[in-house]
Fold this sequence. Notes:
This protein is of the alpha/beta class.
Amino acid sequence: MSRTADTIIRSEVRTALSGQDGVVLAVSGGVDSMVMLDAAVRAGPPLVVATFDHRTSPASAAAVALVERRCHDLGVSCVVGRARRRVAGEANWRAQRWGFLRRVARDSDAKVATAHTRDDQVETVFMRLLRDAGPRGLAGLYARSDVLRPLLGTSRTDVEAYARDLSIAYVHDPSNLSRRHLRNRVRHDILPAIVAARPAFPDELLDLAARAAAWRESVAAIVDALGVELHADGSLFVACRALESYDERELAILWPEIAARMDVTMDRRGTHRVAAFTIHGATGGSIQLSGGIEVVRTRTHFVLRRKAP
Length: 309
């Protein structure tokens, strides 16, 4: 095996997982996550593997069976989740999978680790450029998160070399070849064509993402100083006085970071509405945002909360 691939992957995984009291590895059965599992077992922290069957095809069940067998061979605990109902679309699959992973992490008092690679970051940033994302979105997988990504500095080529030379079994998900999904068109067609004409393009995207992540950190530092309070019922309070010195453009930058403190993602329209409401909204007034979220202005605070069903 290439010593470069061996050194990079084991070093990256060891560094990312060191000092963790417990780690939940999100293992799908694909090459990236099966390599992460092999390297994580060698790194030594307490591990639980979590694998999820979306029940979308026979390949999904076969992947779960492979993960279970590998975990048995390695002596690693494996938790299997299965979709209660079949749903369509990548967004729905992601919501199902992450709901399961978060539950396993809470039960294990551990952090989730995913097998995203450098190539995944390049694809993510490019897709967000296509969707006209702002700097928050362009940070991609570099944004601050409680999720561990030990392979994020590793290329997919090195991951495949690791698997090939150590004879690590994995499944090929046929959906990864379907051009119905934007990511697959980007991965197999669009990015290779651009890179052929501009070889430095992936590095330029990664540099853009790094600068966007640094910008997000500077905004997060400002929000930290606002004294945002997250209450036990899940609602979030920010003092009116803390926001009164900002204009509408600046508030449109601050509010998405404020909302992120309670795991709410604001769309562009909602962001501008709440920025305007912060300046012009009357005491006792409120506005409704997508996703069942409302913002209420009291005499002393803005309150961001989920509406009761």
